Amino acid sequence: GEDVEQSLFLSVREGDSSVINCTYTDSSSTYLYWYKQEPGAGLQLLTYIFSNMDMKQDQRLTVLLNKKDKHLSLRIADTQTGDSAIYFCAERNTGGFKTIFGAGTRLFVKA
Amino acid sequence: GAVVSQHPSWVICKSGTSVKIECRSLDFQATTMFWYRQFPKQSLMLMATSNEGSKATYEQGVEKDKFLINHASLTLSTLTVTSAHPEDSSFYICSARVQGLGYEQYFGPGTRLTVT
After folding, report:
1. Which chain B residues are closer than 8 Å to A42 by Cβ?
2. d(CA B76, CA B90)
3. In which band, very low, low, confident or very high, does the pLDDT at A41 lie, cut at 50, 70 and 90?
4. Taking chain B (116 residues) in consecutive chunks of 10 residues, what is each chunk's mean pLDDT?
5. Which among A41, A44, A88 is the nearest to B43, CB-wise?
6. How large is the average pLDDT for residues A60-73?
7. Rounded to whole angstroms, how far apart are CA atoms B7 and B26?
8. Contact B49/B56 with Cβ under 8 angstroms?
9. Closest CA of chain A from B43, distance in Å
């Protein structure tokens, strides 16, 4: 079945760039998402990319998609302490009803 | 736009009692709502999917009679945890998908349930 994998933890210094990686198995994935979850809160959609795109940039966020390797990454430029959270990678295919989530990467930003 | 609310945000109940959690889409009509459960430091586990006016579709391993889901209108879905036990303590998150407005799911803030 479909699977989404992420590293569980990332620590960076304030001002540095963060890169969170994700791999997925479903070759028919059409939509790939990045969600942010702050402590005790629900998930906030940060950005998403369609499978026919290689890159998407939105202010400090850059999403890169390597469809051949089924690899998705989220780069956060000039990481701030407020970026500390759990980041979930997720995928869904066109005919799929469910969104499949990774386990989440906990980003810790040191001041 | 596309705000999803949950009520209550946290609840403590005694073992054996039932608890109802509400999920509302505030500024849009949600044809499909999802209920997730999240254990500490873990990902979201999809419990069930509900479409307005029809019975919910439960994921394998989720007890229908224990987790009652009602999607009575396009803006409201409820999850009732019946005869709650301490092992039901968890963070419950609902999500709504907007038909015709793209492919995103919008999430509620979650409800923390503690069963004593």
Report:
1. 4, 6, 93, 107-110
2. 21
3. confident
4. 89 96 90 89 87 88 94 91 96 84 78 96
5. A88
6. 95
7. 12
8. yes
9. 4
Across the interface, whether the CB atoms of A97 and B112 are under 8 A apart is answered no
Query: Which residues on adjacent β-strands are paired with residue B113?
Result: B11, B90
B103–A48: do the CB atoms touch at under 8 Å?
Answer: yes
Instruction: Give CA–CA dist B104/B116, Å, rounded.
Output: 36
How many residues are there in chain B? 116
Q: Which residue has the tokens 């209920």?
A: B35
Contacts of A35 in chain B (CB under 8 A): 107
How far is it, in rounded angstroms, from Cα A57 to Cα A49?
Answer: 10
| Type of residue found at A96 | G
Strand A105-110, strand A85-93: pairing: antiparallel
